[in-house]
Amino acid sequence: MSPVAVLPLAAPTAGGSASGSRRGVEITLADPDRRARRPLPPWLRRLLGPVLLLAAWQIGSATGLIASNILAGPWTVLHTGYDLAADGTLHHNLLISLRRVALGLVLGVGVALVLAVAAGIFRLGEDVIDAPMQILRAVPILGLVPLAILWFGIGEQVKIFLVALGTAFPVYINTFAAIRGVDARYMELARTVRLSRAAVIRRVVLPGALPGFLVGLRFAFTVSWLVLVVSEQINASSGIGYLMDQARTFGQTDVIVVGLAVYGLLGLLSDGLVRLLERHALAWRRGLEAT
Q1: What is the pLDDT of residues 157-212, one digit of tens each?
Q2: b/e 136-157 (16+ beta carbons within 10 angstroms → b)
Q3: Are 171 and 220 spatial neighbours (Cβ–Cβ below 8 Å)?
Q4: Pairing with 40, which of 162, 173, 238, 271 sits 20 to 30 Å away (CA)?
Q5: 74-281: CATH superfamily
Q6: Domain ranges of the chain
Q7: What is the dihedral of CA 204, 206, 209, 214, to 10 degrees?
Q8: pLDDT tens, 28-43?
């Protein structure tokens, strides 16, 4: 507890009252130990969890509590990742995975955005589009793999289709909800100034739906990596998922962990990219900031 000092306001006088002589000001003195204990910076606090997890993993591997055939140690995983990067294996398969995700995202996000705008603005569009989208959203994506293979074969098309299908739903749902949540006063103002339908969409609807679209895009990036890791293990001959599937066949847990780390890093980077885009695109919007 910090020490407290009481200082008198004035010296007592002969004719003064007893209560007047007792008045004072309490001053809380600074605790030198408390001043020395400065809080950790935010970036360092965020690293505490991963560092503790890595330490527990390393201790478990070094003491034999975690067998190498169950989970390779972190140093083994690090060396394996370096070897895969040095001989070009990781780079080659990473580029193929990135290409599949990029094509699937462009296709899925583009189609979902068009459908969301049509369903959000036009009553007929909602009647025709929204119900089938809600039904398809309830169907597990991986449950469509057999049909997708029959439709597209086992080549690149099936993987791109699955990524596109998985990323379309979060974009559609969030964009549709954002369009329906546009302030009605803006629509009244647009009708008052006699804006055309195209101008209303361009100047009112799309800017108002942008926050919801970006939220859906963040979810879409996450779903794209989840779908890709499974689709690349189905009759594939390249990609990060293919490396993991081959490693499973030969019991190489270190390669599997390297693949998982790559997927996690890609997901983190893509989420950071969308958040950066959101920060610049929505600079006009003020919200609650964490303290």
Answers
A1: 999 999 999 999 999 999 999 988 887 787 778 788 877 778 887 788 888 888 89
A2: eeeeebeebbeebeeeeeeebe
A3: yes
A4: 271
A5: MetI-like (1.10.3720.10)
A6: 74-281
A7: -150
A8: 555 555 555 677 777 7
